[in-house]
Amino acid sequence: MSRKGVMQHSGGEVVFTSLDKWEAEYKMYKRLVQIKTFKNFRLWKGFYVWRKNIIYNKIHLAKRNLTQNMFILNPLLRQGLLDIQYMCYKMSDSSFVNSIERENIWLFYFIENQMDKLIVIKDKLNEFHDLVKEIVFNACHGALLLKGFVVDERLIEDTKGILYI
Fold first, then answer.
1. In this structure, are residues 72 and 81 in contact, taking their beta carbons and an 8 Å threshold?
2. Which of 59, 103, 118, 155 has the fewest C-beta atoms under 10 angstroms from its C-beta?
3. Can you give the pLDDT of all 165 residues of the chain as single tens digits?
């Protein structure tokens, strides 16, 4: 800075500004800083960065909790769910009405055929129910064991190695 102006060195570039022009720009800068937006910019920027950091940390924590606790990401539970979904797909192919005989038959025989079909469907549904129950039990049991839970409370070991039943 000299009596004639201000010289700025930026890298290899040199910019000279006369003192009158520099003083006018300084006054404009001071007036600009008095505007509320520019006056509070530093405070707002710090708040914005803080808020953004909090939101990022919350999302990161939620993602981690979801990946740790979502049953679909657990291989045992996922396989159980896929097995049940496949069984439901297979059950959707089942017909609940016996429509093999298309000829005119007596109502009594038609009802008898439908009752036979009802028994077959009931047996299929009972078998499906038992299989689903077994799949869910095995998947949940395995998932609990992987997490370190003792599924049968009667099998808790004492610190001395004695098994209490």
1. yes
2. 103
3. 888 888 888 888 888 888 889 899 999 999 998 998 888 888 889 999 999 999 999 999 999 888 777 777 778 888 898 999 999 888 888 777 766 666 677 877 878 888 888 898 899 999 999 999 999 988 888 888 888 887 666 655 555 555 544
- pTM for the predicted model, two decimal places: 0.46
Same domain, 156 and 96: yes
Query: 150 and 91 in one domain?
Result: yes
Claim to verify: residue 79 and residue 147 sit in the same structural domain: yes
Name the domain count of the chain: 2
Domain that holds residue 37: 5-63
Among 40, 32, 9, 136, residue whose Cα is nearest residue 79: 136
